[in-house]
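User: Design a sequence. Structure:
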């Protein structure tokens, strides 16, 4: 099955005409969402339980793990173990209901391919041994010709899905669009857009500028063919549009769904269906 969705559920005005969309409303359009709130704080058990109760049975969540796990903030092994135990416990409503697609660890651009960092990845995986796990790299060294085979083999042995990333193509600092499948159960695509100039932005507006991009029809057609080729190798494919800054993610997700000829059943009723 191919599941298409967006990063966050409340930023997509095009779905409802409102500045903030509720999770219930979002789940009337897509069967998948990436919860990036987990990057900033460990979600409470009560909030996870509430989220699970607002979506239909066939809906799935991708939970982005806290920034301390991905070296955005420093923490001791003991602190990481404590945080991992807390997250594992609080996600149980999602796990027990079968609504967790995977955990996502997104590493920063300065996390390069070194022996020390490979050991760290092994440590992080041991913190979440029973969870479906995906890793996204933003440092191109992991894809260097000297390391790429080792990167993929490591992911396979650790039962980790290497996220298939689409981002700007003309910069030496970005990672390539590599459709490698390193987990037999699921594959995970993240589409950030191709804003070459915005990707290198710094300052308080950097995050908005990086993902300010609208995929064009020909680009979505190319991505659709790539998705179809990957789908043959796994049980499930998750696709997240992260180009939220200009309000394009939901519309691009809808266009890709149409391109792939997918008609989702069993979603929440939309406002139009309520009357």
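Assistant: Done.
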């Amino acid at each position: 099955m191919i599941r298409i969705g967006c990063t966050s559920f409340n930023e997509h005005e095009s779905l409802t005409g409102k500045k903030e969309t509720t999770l219930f409303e979002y789940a009337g359009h897509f069967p998948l969402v990436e919860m990036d709130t987990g990057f900033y704080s460990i979600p409470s058990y009560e909030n996870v339980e509430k989220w699970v109760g607002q979506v239909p049975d066939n809906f799935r969540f991708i939970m982005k793990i806290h920034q301390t796990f991905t070296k955005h903030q420093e923490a001791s092994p003991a602190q990481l173990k404590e945080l991992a135990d807390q997250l594992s416990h609080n996600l149980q409503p999602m796990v027990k209901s079968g609504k967790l697609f995977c955990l996502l660890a997104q590493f920063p651009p300065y996390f390069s391919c070194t022996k020390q960092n490979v050991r760290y990845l092994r440590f992080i995986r041991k913190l979440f041994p029973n969870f479906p796990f995906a890793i996204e790299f933003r440092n191109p060294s992991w894809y260097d010709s000297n390391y790429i085979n080792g990167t993929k083999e490591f992911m396979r042995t650790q039962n980790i899905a290497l996220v298939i990333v689409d981002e700007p193509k003309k910069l030496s600092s970005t990672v390539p669009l590599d459709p490698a499948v390193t987990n037999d159960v699921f594959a995970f695509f993240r589409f950030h857009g191709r804003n070459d100039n915005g990707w290198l932005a710094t300052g308080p507006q950097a995050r908005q500028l990086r993902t300010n991009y609208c995929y064009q029809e020909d680009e979505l057609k190319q991505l659709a063919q790539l998705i179809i080729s990957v789908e043959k190798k796994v049980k499930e494919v998750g696709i997240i549009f992260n180009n939220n800054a200009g309000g394009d993610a939901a519309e691009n997700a809808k266009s890709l769904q149409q391109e792939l000829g997918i008609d989702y059943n069993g979603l929440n009723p939309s406002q139009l269906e309520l009357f």
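The longest strand covers residues 100-106. The chain has a mean pLDDT of 93.
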